[in-house]
Amino acid sequence: MPVFWQVWVMLLVLGNMMLPFFFLENPESWVILAGILVSMFVMMTLFSTFGFVRLLGLGHSPWLITVPWLWYQWSRMDTGNPFYHWLLAVLVLNSISLVIDAVDVVRYCKGERQPTVSTGHHCF
Asked: 3-class secondary structure for the chain?
């Protein structure tokens, strides 16, 4: 996987899977964690069936519901606290990711079915 995409995935993991644990007193953190768990299950299922193809973008489909709700919640919050800034960062990352995923799924449906990452080589 190219370095850019490795960094992108690391940012998504950091924002969606690690930092929510610092804000568990907020329901939005729980929604993000639940969304990531559902996404991981869908992606693992897709990966085991199709491999590392553009169709994996469907794994982020739970965000089609949660991201608009999170944007609404964010718009009603007090500014200036760490939770507000973290949630903004997650929303920007996840919104961009949804666009990338939509493009990938459309490309897959139009016939681009080859693996996007070689699974024969290891990063180690």
From this structure: CCHHHHHHHHHHHHHHHHHHHHCCCCHHHHHHHHHHHHHHHHHHHHHHHHCCCHHHHHHHCCHHHHHHHHHHHHHCCCCCCHHHHHHHHHHHHHHHHHHHHHHHHHHHHCCCCCCCCCCCCCCC
Count CB-CB contacts under 10 A for residue 120: 6
Angle at CA of residue 89, ends 21 and 26, nearest 5°: 35
Burial of 28 (0-12, 13-18, 19+ CB in 10 A): buried
121 pLDDT exceeds 80?
A: no
Residue 116 in tokens = 């996007």
**Cα 57 to Cα 1, 29, 44, 68, 84, distances in angstroms:** 16, 22, 12, 18, 27
67-118 per-position pLDDT tens digit: 999 999 999 998 889 999 999 999 999 999 999 999 989 999 998 888 766 5
